[in-house]
Amino acid sequence: MSGGGEAGGRVPRPFTDADGERLAAEWVAAWNAHDLDRIIELYAPGIVFQTPTVIDTLGLPDGTVRGLTELREHFARGLARLPDLHFELHDAYVGVRSLAIVYRWADGTPVCELHEYDPQERIERVQALYRGLSW
Q: Is 62 exposed, middle or buried (0-12, 13-18, 19+ CB in 10 A)?
């Protein structure tokens, strides 16, 4: 994440637990609605998103998508592949401008995603971590 501040030189304040709960709930709700436009609105234009599922959906060997166009394609393929996709939120942990979201897919796969946010509270970097991924 860059060290720059918002317009006017103001540095964004650190996240609180309430921020984490709000952002995690907003993110899970968008996914559970299967609303691709709503999901994509949560991400910054320069998003860097790394997940093992990208290797399968887009054939990118490093598992990394860059930018909203690639991210939208990855998410669209995932939603098409898993029409019953549902996330069950278990916890959210806050950092200064980051959030770890712990959840389970409908099939029970445990997941932890680390999101880093820009000053507008859009997700700009993601590491998605799984246990027992059966993608």
A: exposed
CA distance 135 to 129: 13
Token pair 């999101």 is found at: 115
**Cβ pair 126, 114 in contact under 8 A:** yes
Split at pLDDT 50, 70, 90, the class of 9 is low
Could you tell me the fold of the domain covering 14-130? Nuclear Transport Factor 2; Chain: A, (3.10.450)
Q: In angstroms, rounded to a whole number, what is the distance separating the alpha carbons of residues 55 and 135?
A: 10
**Which H or E run includes 12?**
none
Q: Please calculate the CA angle 131-64-14 and round it to the nearest 5 degrees.
A: 80
Least-confidence region, from 2-16, 21-35, 37-51, 113-127? 2-16
> Is 50 exceeded by the pLDDT of residue 2?
no
pLDDT score at 8 = 54
Any idea where the domains of the chain sit in the sequence?
14-130
